Amino acid sequence: MPFDPAQFRQLLGRFATGVTVITTHHNSERHGMTANAFTSVSLDPPLILVSIDKRALMHTIMMENDAFCVNLLPEHRREWSDWWAGKAPKDADQFADIPYTDGTTGSPVLEGCLGYIDCKVWERYPGGDHTLVLGEVQDAEVNTDPDIKPLLFFSSKYHKIGDQL
Questions:
Q1: What CATH number labels 18-156?
Q2: Does residue 164 have a pLDDT over 70?
Q3: What's the first-to-final CA gap in the chain, in angstroms?
Q4: How many CB atoms within 10 Å of residue 88?
């Protein structure tokens, strides 16, 4: 059976993921990008990985920058996901109405998220039409509010977490 790229993309969409916003600062400007291609890599040393499309503006920035932050979005922040997924006006200040603080690396930490992971770039690897960026964790924090739930992405749609099995 021949490999079908469209079916492969559909298959990957059937894997439920959380939604993150990757943030960074570069030349005194702050930037963000929605991403669901994020995973942990190592506990010792603490490393994570994000996958950045080479066509994305964020790719150019991440190739020149040495730090980034992964912000794990809660279900009530779908609009942030849309905003940083390219639905914001091109000339808009990406952080004008978004509450944030500067993290340890200077990257924006979005307030009210499930948590964040602030990193220095450890290494970059080519990955086809993406670049895999390994980050060494400099700081991380989890939101301990027991009522906060993750924003999920499945089959090209947002979802809420359901009943525990």
A1: 2.30.110.10
A2: yes
A3: 36
A4: 14
Average predicted confidence (pLDDT) for the chain: 93
Give the residue from 65, 80, 63, 72 showing the smallest Cα distance to 29.
Answer: 65
**27-81: per-residue pLDDT in tens?**
888 999 999 899 999 999 999 999 999 999 899 999 999 999 999 999 999 999 9
Say whether 85 sits in a helix, a strand or coil.
helix
* Residue from 98, 112, 104 nearest 142 by CA: 112
**Cβ atoms of 51 and 37 closer than 8 Å:** yes
Sign of CA dihedral 101, 107, 111, 116: negative
Tokens matching residue 94: 């990406």
Question: Containing H/E element for 102?
Answer: strand 100-102
pTM of the predicted protein model? 0.93
Distance between CA atoms of residues 64 and 55, nearest Å: 15
**Bridge partners for 70 per DSSP:** 22, 117
3-state secondary structure of 106: coil
Q: Residue type for 5, please?
A: P
